[in-house]
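Here is one chain, start to finish.
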Amino acid sequence: MLAAIATAALHGIDAYRVDLEVDLSRQGMPAFSMVGLAEGAVRESKERVFSALKNSGFRLPPSRITVNLAPADVRKAGSGYDLPLAVGLLAGAGVLDAARVAGWFLAGELSLAGELKPVPGALPLATLARAEGARGIVVPRANAAEAAVVEGVAVYGLDTLAEAVRFLAGEQQAEPECGDLAALWAAREVFPLDFAEVKGQEHAKRAIEIAAAGGHNLLFIGPPGSGKTMLASRIPSVLPPLCFEEALEVTKVYSVAGLLDGEALKVARPFRSPHHTISDAGLIGGGAYPRPGEVSLAHRGVLFLDELPEFKKSVLEVLRQPLEAGRVTISRAAVALTYPADIMLVAAMNPCPCGHYGDARHQCICRAEDVLRYRGRVSGPLMDRIDLHVEVPAVPYADLRQTSGGVDSATMRARIAAAREIQAARYAGAPTMTNAGLSGALLEEHCALGGAEHDFLRRAVEALGLSARAYVRILRIARTIADLEGAPAIAAAHLAEAVNCRTLDRRM
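Its structure:
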């Protein structure tokens, strides 16, 4: 008897339909074969599924079993095919009515006892099921809240294979999962860290405000203990909140990576801070079957690289293309996947190996060639892609004794939100929503300069030997500074501050 069960496979952060076809024949010797480019975990599902069926009280007649995963020319991986396979076997054996399971999407891993365990990708599965007009989806209970974020499709979270069979047979009722989006959105406004806790460093806070307002990349340069990490860790508290579509994108990335940890929806902008020993595959993504890396896990949020020169140069160089394109394409012999990587890069480094070059209070013990070699670990092309280079000197004792930390996150967040609203209105219908993405005709239109401003910028570019990429970034930063002030046009003062943000590291 033939039965077909609908499930899904992941391609990047999206899912595509897979029809799991099961044929049970009484002719020939009992055997089991699976076709359709099944990877290791899928092939091993036979042992898990047969044990789960036995321990759940189901018996299959001796049969020649053939399982096909269609489309057969696309590789299938993961343990999410356990539940569809078990239900398909029962439908093929006549225990379940094949007509009753038609139109349902199933996914879940089975334990040997028949318990349903969570699997990655429940959110993309629910999105696919809605697009396919499915009757509903059945997933492990741990995946139900995540899948229920997608409106327009009924999501049923169950605990065991026996429950799933009784539910599909109509012998047991279950209530669809309901997501409480209002409660989730309320969590967006809770920030454990605040810029009011940072004493001094007002110029660094100003740079953060500019970077967050325009979506620019940012580099802190300063001695150990000057507060670089403290400043970076508070950047999420001033970023605009995620909209629902952005939250779905971020949640999809974490879902396919298996990192949701029970969260239904990622409502806060990610902040990822990998250790400098990370590999290029860990940062960009990869593996035999590619998975998202840190740059994709930071999508729509902040990727913070502390001690930037300590990262392997090969690791840093792979960042260059994602910083420009906002996405990562990973190609392997059998598959090519694209993951989103629209990030705000924030990095921190010391000015020299000992950390005290240019510090009036400490003597630097590094030789000139050591300083050059240390800075040379970060290539010029990568430095060009970081919009703001900001000096963070040691905090004076007088600032440490302040009773107030100066500007707080709420004040900065309000100013940043106002600047983002200006940009959203200006770039409505354009391929970018922030000044950091300006290029080509959009750059010429919205960063037009008057005669005096052109003359000022020309002298700055020639005197400092800035590249064409640095010139473009100065215009983008100046446009953001003008937006923070509510100015319709870029003035010389905006250009001067933008140039200063690009050249601090050159003076050290």
